[in-house]
Amino acid sequence: MAGEDELKLLGTWASPWVSRVKLALHLKGLSYEYVEQDLDNKSDLLLTSNPVHKKVPVLIHNGKPICESVVILEYIDEAYGTTGPSLLPTDPYERAIARFWVDYIDQKLVIPWKVAFTADGEEEKTEGIKQMLAVVQTLEGALKECSKGKPFFGGDSVGYVDIALGGLLAFLQGTEELCGTKPFDIANTPLLLAWVERFTALDAAKVALPDVTKLVEFAKTKRAQMALSIKK
Amino acid sequence: MAAKPDLKLLGMSVSPFVIRVRMALHMKGVSHEYIEQDLFNKSELLLESSPVEKKVPVLIHDGKPVCDSPAIVQYIDEVWAATGPPILPADPYERAVARFWTAYVDDKLFPAYVGTAKAATEEERTQQINEMFAVMGQLEEAFAQCSNGKAFFAGDSIGNLDIAVGCNLLLLEVLRSMYGVEFVDTGRTPLLAAWAKRFGETDAAREVVPDVHVAVEYAKKRQAYWAAAAATK
């Protein structure tokens, strides 16, 4: 495309949804301006770019905003179809499978994780952990199905499902400390465990994912703040 | 002429997600075998084809199942790209806008509908109904933005977003019938009210959308099921 091509990403350093977009931009070799947002004091730019949800990430391409991490990922793949690798598979059936698993991750993994993280009582926490581990087990099966023995969900190279799950990696790595259970282990999820190693070694991961220690500390602080405000 | 595709759709006539997929197939003029499912007594075929979610719709093409209505609609659009009108727009930005609003409708409208039908108290029901009004207000704005003064979200003829929103009109009629609430009215949401009328008159809608009485009956069956489940806890 001739002329100026301007990409701006509104995000927060801790957000896994923002990490997803950073991963995709990096994998495509795209340069962009990153603008850290203060969600307690939302900028005009954020509010005008995402009036419906007022959330990050927002990708602004030549002044036009795209919202929702999954929508942004598909947009990047389509708007930059001839730049860098494809994020989604080319075969329609494989695309449908990839879309299914990304939706599954968004609908099923996050909620029990949050329950396990914020639970007040032991019973609630145990239930959250149980559900989260069941989802992780299903994802182990998904990895086997999608990778067909290759390193990633996308096969030889990182794809859409890898990015969708990969964006959550810092949280997943902090899960033992934050939720009281390891999400992956060699007995139940050997493929995912190996996938985590591979994914975190990627340049894109080093750029896009927040530091796990910093994230865990931040999450604990937020949780304490929320607990305090509820007790008032 | 290409051979008839080996195509089956497992569905339930009043499910908005199933209606959406049937409309997509209709838009593309693709012949298929439709198999109505009993969701209170799930078939082997459904459980095998949708092992993770065990839900409808499931499109089975040459024996391979595709699940999740947004994934199915895009699959249909891609496989039958050379047949019929495009379901999603061609431009990447417009596709992103269509996907954004489809996700919005799926995240907000259907859960509010279920919440309304499932509500145990009047207070709860009112809360859910207010949520639905908020969603419809947002969709009214979306329509203004997307349609650019034309008849449908997608322009002169129906597209992805029309079927994504339109497939839920039946549910709104169910709530009107059961609770007397009007969610699409010329006062509050004039653009949507006019669009809903046009949408209802399309071939796709006429072919695929069942009568509201069928939907009300199903809703009542669901409510009885929830009540029984709650009682046994």
What's the layout of helices and strands?
The complex is a heterodimer of chains A (232) and B (233).
Chain A: E1 7-11, H1 16-27, E2 33-36, H2 44-49, E3 58-61, E4 64-67, H3 69-79, H4 92-118, H5 122-147, H6 160-166, H7 169-173, H8 175-179, H9 190-201, H10 203-208, H11 212-231
Parallel strand pairs in A: 1-2
Antiparallel strand pairs in A: 1-3, 3-4
Chain B: E1 7-11, H1 16-28, E2 33-36, H2 44-49, E3 58-61, E4 64-67, H3 69-79, H4 92-118, H5 122-147, H6 160-166, H7 169-179, H8 190-200, H9 203-208, H10 212-231
Parallel strand pairs in B: 1-2
Antiparallel strand pairs in B: 1-3, 3-4
Helix pairs in contact in B: 1-3, 1-6, 4-5, 4-6, 7-10
Domain GST N-terminal (chain A): 5-84
Keywords (chain A): Transferase
Organism (chain A): Triticum aestivum
As a percent range, the share of helical residues of chain B equals 55-70%
Secondary structure tally: strands of chain A: 4
CATH fold descriptor of the largest domain in chain B: Glutathione S-transferase Yfyf (Class Pi), Chain A, domain 2
Main interface: chain pair and counts:
A-B, 23 and 23 residues
How would a crystallographer describe the biggest sheet of chain B?
4 strands, mixed
Q: Mean pLDDT of chain B, rounded to whole units?
A: 95
Query: Looking across the biggest beta sheet of chain B, what order are the strands in?
Result: 2-1-3-4
Q: H/E element string of chain A?
A: EHEHEEHHHHHHHHH
Q: Biggest sheet of chain A, in brief?
A: 4 strands, mixed
Q: Describe the strand arrangement of the main beta sheet of chain A, using strand numbers.
A: 2-1-3-4
| Assembly state of the chains shown | heterodimer
Protein name (chain A): glutathione transferase
Pfam families (chain A): GST_C (PF00043), GST_N (PF02798)
Keywords (chain A): Transferase
Family (chain A): Belongs to the GST superfamily.
